[in-house]
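Let us walk through a complete example step by step. Step one is to write down the protein sequence. Step two is to encode the small molecule, pyridoxal-5'-phosphate, as a SMILES string so that its atoms and bonds are unambiguous. Step three, shown after the inputs, is the structure prediction itself.
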Amino acid sequence: MNSLQTSRNLVLEQIKNACKLANRSENDVQLLAVSKTHPSEILQEMYETGQRAFGENYLQEALDKIEKLKNLEIEWHFIGHVQRNKTKHLASNFAWVHGVDRLIIAERLSSQREASQAPLNICLQVNIDAQDTKDGCSPEDVADLVKTISQLPHLKLRGLMVIPAPNNTQAFADAKFLFEKVKTEHAHPEDWDTLSMGMSGDMVDAIDAGSTMVRVGTALFGARDYSLK
Ligand SMILES: *Cc1c(COP(=O)(O)O)cnc(C)c1O
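Step three: the predicted structure of the complex.
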């Protein structure tokens, strides 16, 4: 077995055990392979182990990989910060965008998504633990954003995405509470099914709190070397 197969099996096993501990079905939690900084050959190898959902943070790097791997049936997720002038590329090339945190971004994604494509899946990024960052809307704004964004035609508003500070386990519980609370604002509540939280270091806690999608990079691919970029 190659090393990517080994690491993926280990991560899947961790997810399964975390689900068991939390009394949840292992099918409730999806594994998103975060492949930023890794070359397309490595993604292809990971694909061959059975992985289909890949997450990327940097648009140009992602577009290069999408082009190189266009013959594979990869579900591409954009998990980086969404800049207003990049929405066109996101709308046409990705299946999911996790970092939507303002109405104007959602409106642009919706109007730029081709009607011939499936609706673009999006998550609202919430700054759940009031970190000093410009990414993520504040928890108080989520209900209104859900109400408005869920009515946009070419989007499917799936849920929330959070990146709490390391070791802030309470933040996962807060995100789960907010996720349940704002569901009633959604124009199509049956679409509201995704809580994107948990990374290599904290996926067990995130799953315990109710995560439905863990975004895992290091535990699958090893440490990232940004100097190669
Ligand atoms: C890089 C990244 C991850 C993966 O982090 P690891 O600690 O390598 O698992 C997950 N989510 C986001 C938003 C990221 O930028």
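Step four is interpretation. Strands lie at 30-34, 53-56, 75-78, 96-100, 120-125, 155-161, 194-196, 213-216.
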